[in-house]
Amino acid sequence: EAQVTQNPRYLITVTGKKLTVTCSQNMNHEYMSWYRQDPGLGLRQIYYSMNVEVTDKGDVPEGYKVSRKEKRNFPLILESPSPNQTSLYFCASSFSREATQYFGPGTRLLVL
Amino acid sequence: GEDVEQSLFLSVREGDSSVINCTYTDSSSTYLYWYKQEPGAGLQLLTYIFSNMDMKQDQRLTVLLNKKDKHLSLRIADTQTGDSAIYFCAERVYNNNDMRFGAGTRLTVKP
């Protein structure tokens, strides 16, 4: 089944404790991106990747890192999480930047 | 404006039509999308329309595009309780192909 998977789906952590949210797609998509969803703000792009080893900042990259060592995986790294990073995070992928994006199920993060 | 704008809430009775409205930002946006998000789930692409079209119909869904006013609407005919969800409008910005999302409209369908 073609899909985008994220892990974990739910996470509660404390300020400053490094965490990684994984994202994987099995559709051989070149383009992947991370969004955060906050009430009243819709989805805002954090980072995106056009291909392996090619990443770039989105609208709200501060406090986040990404890597794209393999085509199928695009982990989101929070080196030192803060409470304002409490949010719902979505990974998405598509064949290209112009193509329709497919979204993962979301990761709900609470930073205490 | 700078934001894709949608009203936050809509409530309809089962069997009625729902119309969700969206105002987008860039008159040269190439594609406009409607996504559906059910509780606890990710975003599911419902439909999209290319900017050179005025209307697109897909079963119970009708998308209308008014480029002059930068207005997009999604009509759901014969709305069912299973249509209760958050609906996001999104545009693909022409100059950099970024996706820009609205805040989402929560549709509640009452029996």
Layout of helices and strands:
The complex is a heterodimer of chains A (112) and B (111).
Chain A (H helix, E strand, L loop, with lengths): L3 E4 L2 E4 L5 E7 L5 E8 L3 E10 L2 E4 L7 E2 L9 E3 L8 E8 L7 E2 L3 E5 L1
Parallel strand pairs in A: 2-11
Antiparallel strand pairs in A: 1-3, 3-8, 4-5, 4-9, 5-6, 7-8, 9-10, 9-11
Chain B lengths: L4 E2 L2 E5 L4 E6 L7 E7 L5 E8 L4 E4 L2 E6 L4 E6 L8 E8 L6 E3 L3 E6 L1
Parallel strand pairs in B: 2-11
Antiparallel strand pairs in B: 1-3, 3-8, 4-5, 4-9, 6-7, 7-8, 9-10, 9-11
Helix content of chain B: under 10%
Tell me the major beta sheet of chain A: 7 strands, mixed
Percent of residues in helices of chain A comes to: under 10%
Query: What's the number of helices of chain B?
Result: 0
| DSSP summary, beta strand count of chain B | 11
Q: Low-confidence parts of chain A, pLDDT < 50 over ≥5 residues?
A: none
Straight-line distance between termini of chain B: 37 Å
- Multimer state: heterodimer
> What is the H-and-E element order of chain B?
EEEEEEEEEEE
What is the strand tally of chain A?
A: 11
- Mean of residue pLDDT values of chain A: 93
Task: Choose one word for the global shape of chain A.
Answer: globular
Which strand-content bin applies to the residues of chain B?
over 45%
Number of helices of chain A: 0
